[in-house]
Amino acid sequence: MDFLSGLMENYYYMVAIILFVIGMHTMLTHSNMIKKIIAMNIMDTSVFLLFVAIGYSYGGKAPIITEGADIVYANPLPGSLILTGIVVAVSVTAYALSLVVKIYRYYGTCDYDEICEIRSKE
Asked: How far is CA 2 from CA 11, 42, 67, in A?
C-alpha cells in the first residue's frame, strides 16, 4: 500500500518515464525522419518534466530573499537549466527539420529505408 501511495504522490516521475519510453519506441521503430524528430522532442519533454519535478519543492516561493521571513525557497537552478534545454531543443529541432527538407528535395522522400534503397542503387 505504501508503494501505491508513493507512486500516486510522485506520479510525474512515472509520466516522465512513460513519455521517454514512448519517444524511444517511436524513434527506434519508425523510419520516417519527421516522426523521429517528433519522438526526439517527446524524449526532450520527458527529461524536462523530470528535472522540473525533481526541483519542485512543496510550498516553495520564488527565491527573492526578504529579511525576517521564514520562507521555503524554490531552487532556481532546475528552472534555469530547463529554459536553456528548451532553447537548445528548439534549435536542434529547427536544424533537423531543415535537414529533412533538404533530404526530401533531393530524394523525394523522408523515409530512411527508402533513402537507403535509393542510395544502394546509385
From this structure: 14, 30, 39
CB proximity list for 57: less than 8 A, separation 6 or greater:
72, 73, 74, 75
Query: Cα separation of 94 and 101, whole Å?
Result: 11
Q: Please tell me the predicted confidence (pLDDT) of residue 2.
A: 79
Residue 23, judged by CB atoms within 10 A of its CB (0-12, 13-18, 19+), counts as buried
**Position 119, amino acid:** R
Q: From 26, 16, 76, select the one nearest 46 (Cα to Cα).
A: 16
Instruction: List pLDDT tens digits, range 39-55.
Output: 999 999 999 999 988 88
